[in-house]
Amino acid sequence: MLRYLVILNLFVFLLFSGVARADYGHNPCTLGPVTSTFNVTSDPALANIGDLIGVYTIEGSVVECGPAITVSTVAYFMGQQAVDPLSPGNNYRCQTTVSGVAYEAARPVGENSCDAESVAGAERFRRGPLIARVPLTPFVFPKNFSVSYNIVKTGNIPAGPNVLGPLNLSIIAAGVNGGLATFLDQNAGTLTPGEIIGTTCSLATTLVPVDFGDATIGDTESFAISFNSCTDQQDAVAYNNAVSLEFSSGQTIQSDGSALLNCVGTDCAKGLQIELQDGNGSPINLMAPYKLSTNNPVIGANGLDYTFNAQLQANPAEPLGGGKIDTQLVFNTIIE
Questions:
Q1: Is 67 exposed, middle or buried (0-12, 13-18, 19+ CB in 10 A)?
Q2: Exposure string for 241-258, b = 16+ CB within 10 A, e = fewer
Q3: What is the pLDDT, as a whole number, of residue 37?
Q4: pTM above 0.85, yes or no
């Protein structure tokens, strides 16, 4: 069965050496490098407004705190960004560069901006005896930390690939030295999380039979794969440019990707294989991704049509023998 939409688990891994931007007081905590990952967790096109569609995770470490510091806290800020315009009154959702997509934090900082802080991921730890009524984690260096921000769908996402723009992240290390606090405001760098795909295109049918009838070597049958329900022609064009095919089969694909083998039962035809071709008759490698846009699509107002050919060929590995042709090839659509 054909899968009409598969979103690649977009994964971005970035590494930054943190640079101290401001240092207040004496013996602040030293922060190490910061890494970030972005994962799309569900299909943005099919998600409802308010649904979680991805997670943005930041990880790092506190390398050391000065010997005079007895208690330290690490907090995370996403930088002063506007509140998502599609979420009025919700200062927990920060605007991104993609309409209909927002970052969601544990709580906002400030009234007129979404300078979002994640207190859920904040770390507090101590040095020395346990302070009364403050159950803190003892100092162990390096002290690793991790925090995640949800990526939420807040409206219709524009068609095609949409890059989530740079995100300025600050990490705050605050150390208590007696009654005095010292701070290290570390700019973790400009992080580019990843990409969101917006489309409403879907397969018109998930099963495409190809009937050879009484066939001989060299016979070719054409078939079509169609997508419909695109928002408009712009959406169809963006979908065409973004989608590749990957192939799989319950039967065997030749190791070089040149052809699909027939079934192997006693009533199956022997000595033949099936070559997949594009609409112009050029062979398609079944072991490699195939860019749909190379197959000269017919792009309509709300959909796309692609023509493919299936050609019977001799399989040099075995002699010819009569019987049925019964095999299948699964087309997996991959949005890149």
A1: exposed
A2: ebbbbbbeeebebbeebb
A3: 77
A4: no
Compute φ and ψ for 241, nearest 5 degrees: -75, -20
For residue 328, how many other CB atoms are within 10 A of its CB? 14
Looking at per-residue pLDDT, the higher value among 17 and 43 belongs to 43
pLDDT tens for 276-306 read: 999 999 999 999 999 999 999 999 988 999 9
Longest CA span, the chain: 91
Q: Which amino acid is at 240?
A: N
- In terms of phi and psi (left: phi > 0; alpha: psi -120 to 50; beta: otherwise), the region of 46 is alpha
Q: Average pLDDT, whole number, for the chain?
A: 73
pLDDT of the residue at 189: 43
The DSSP annotation for 275-305 comes to EEEETTS-B--TTS-EEGGGG--EE-SS-EE
Q: Which of 99, 302, 328, 308 minimizes the C-alpha distance to 202?
A: 302
**Burial class of residue 216, CB neighbours in 10 A (0-12, 13-18, 19+):** exposed
Instruction: Return the DSSP state at 238.
Output: H
